[in-house]
Amino acid sequence: MKPGDVLPTVNKTVLQERVNEYAEASGDLNPLHLDPEFAATTHYGRRIVHGMLVLAYISEMMGQAFGRSWLEGGRLKVRFRAPVYPGDQVATFGKVLKIVEVDDFLRLDCSVGCRNQGGEEVINGEASVTVPRDGIGSVAQ
What is the Rg, in whole angstroms, of the alpha carbon atoms belonging to the chain? Predict the structure, then answer.
């Protein structure tokens, strides 16, 4: 693995059923996500997907790329740029920016994000993960 390597893409169609399940699991029952009549009165004009649900797809991408190392200590710093609506198709993106030696480990700093079906970045930011020096393999394309 080296700077410039691309991380695996996670593609999802975000259905209202998934939003409802996320609301129940997270306890975030904001009517903006669940009630079409309420959501119609907001500046969005319709229901939107929980930002943290979409962010979970970036974490899924990082897990695919770095496995247990991501789960044990990955870090994300992102900005939510645009809403995702039920029915939208989203795709994650990521790239290794740099690799820094830290004792017997390597810290990989990555750019990450998620785009909707129109190519608009709905989330973007940075992620870092520390992996054992001998634990770096090739990244899935």
Answer: 17
Cβ atoms of 31 and 5 within 8 Å: the answer is no
Residues 6+ apart with CB under 8 A from 105: 130, 131, 132, 133
Residue-wise pLDDT tens digits, 32-91: 999 999 999 999 999 999 999 999 999 999 999 999 999 998 999 999 999 999 999 999
Give alpha helix (H) positions in the chain.
16-26, 31-34, 36-40, 51-66, 68-73
Specify the DSSP class assigned to residue 6. Answer: B
Q: What is the pLDDT of residues 101-129, one digit of tens each?
A: 988 899 999 999 999 999 999 999 999 99
